[in-house]
Design brief:
Blueprint lengths: L13 E4 L4 E4 H8 L6 H18 L2 H22 L5 H21 L2
Antiparallel strand pairs: 1-2
Helix pairs in contact: 1-2, 3-4
Length: 109
């Protein structure tokens, strides 16, 4: 999530990649890609490079499978942890990520 007043490129997201068995910092990828962001086009290019890096480590279908595992484990933990007022927002984020990787999967066929 990007907070108001922050540049989208200053946000760090660490993503676990099963193939390489390590975390990838998307912030690092984007900052390395574009140092001086002045347009929406530059931001889109930076995000595109970040997505390209993610997909170089795992396929879109592997990401979808991993997202389901992460979400399922999270939901199982909710029974122990109690009520989470953000559960609806978490589901919407999960759903959007799955839809995003499904679109990429369909586009690569």
């Amino acid at each position: 999530m990007v907070r108001v007043g922050e540049s989208p490129l200053n946000v760090t997201m660490n993503v676990w990649t099963p193939k390489t068995r390590h975390y990838t910092s998307i912030n690092h990828i984007m900052n390395a890609s574009i140092k001086n962001v002045e347009s929406d086009e530059a931001i889109c290019l930076a995000y595109g490079r970040g997505v390209k890096e993610l997909l170089s480590q795992s396929t879109a279908s592997e990401w979808i499978e991993d997202l389901w595992i992460i979400y399922s484990d999270h939901m199982a933990f909710q029974k122990e942890a109690g009520c989470n007022p953000r559960i609806g927002e978490i589901f919407l984020s999960f759903r959007e990520l799955v839809f995003f990787f499904q679109k990429l999967e369909i586009g690569s066929r």
